[in-house]
């Protein structure tokens, strides 16, 4: 038998002491008798060890493998050794956005760089962002460096725009054009353009040596050009050309001039920046007509000009107008994707009780529009149908916006005449076209004639007059 002495009292937990009155106590040697001590191991049973699975058996316990009786006499087996611990991998912070020559500067030195504008502007611009991350505000940075909040924002945005220009399509020697102190003012104006537009605008800026005001005009014209689809002369200009976008913006501006002689200098400026041949021909034609008009020469207007435009009312609903109207109309609505068959299938009024305001229709329908009882709509209420268009820019007027509109049409009048505007189906969708264009295409019958166009309410009231139609 193997006898183990009780550990020394000093190495164990607290001892049970006798009362303080006792001055002497005897140290007693306590022993336990152990049947066997099996070291932890795996697999088979070592020679000379009992077949008990390597358990440490205390007196009073059962020698079986956790058999009957209370199992408190069995100590759990020591778990097998685990795999070697993985080495600690320290956290690596992301690479600092600061240039290498600024990364080791302390706070005082970084503030000094901004205060004295030491280095190129795009090199010390990231210092402003780093100060923001450390709790600085634009006001506190301005107090420490003298750099206003406007200049801080301009530096940050311009540096981001500059980084977006760095590519194989933009040589480095062109990029140096913006390294001067005025570079942030130029690049800041390109912030609203996408990556492709920025490249073209930056090249045009360098080629024309534009100042900040000119870059602003260029960027706005490029941003606005896609929104003018369908406007007068839009098809002649190339949307992928920065010069054409700017030329078209000036072309449109010339048509808004009140005095005829004021159109000439604007068109000349448009002709100065145009790039494609089709756009140049369109501007030259407009300039020739403007010169003749300014000289008092009578010029024959084309068919699609102001004098030939039909006057179809285009109205914008006002908030609360329907609830305040003395008469309202309930008209069936057809989506533009439903096709011309839906226009014919939409219900018609079969009976009206004017005293009680009860209206009966000849068939059921899912979508209806409630409109004020305007006189043009009231006159065709029995045959009226509403076509819902998702984008008002598909309509033939120059100042159309990207918004949903309702086109009220009269199904009783299908014969196309030169002065009217009609609803018909093209490519599986309902579209609105002028009568003279349909006659040129040999189309004499349409689905319905447009009575009025209704736009949704908004805070700013605007009216499209008859001469706004293309």
From TrEMBL:
Listed InterPro entries: RAF1, Raf1_C, Raf1_HTH, Raf1_N
Residue stretches in coiled coil: 273-300
Gene Ontology CC terms, in alphabetical order: chloroplast
Domain Rubisco accumulation factor 1 alpha-helical: residue ranges: 182-287
Rubisco accumulation factor 1 C-terminal domain mapped to chain residues: 312-458
Secretion signal, residue range per the UniProt entry: none
GO process annotations (BP): ribulose bisphosphate carboxylase complex assembly
Transmembrane region(s): none
Top-rank taxon, per record: Eukaryota
Comp. bias intervals (Gly residues): 61-74
Protein name, UniProt field: Rubisco accumulation factor 1, chloroplastic
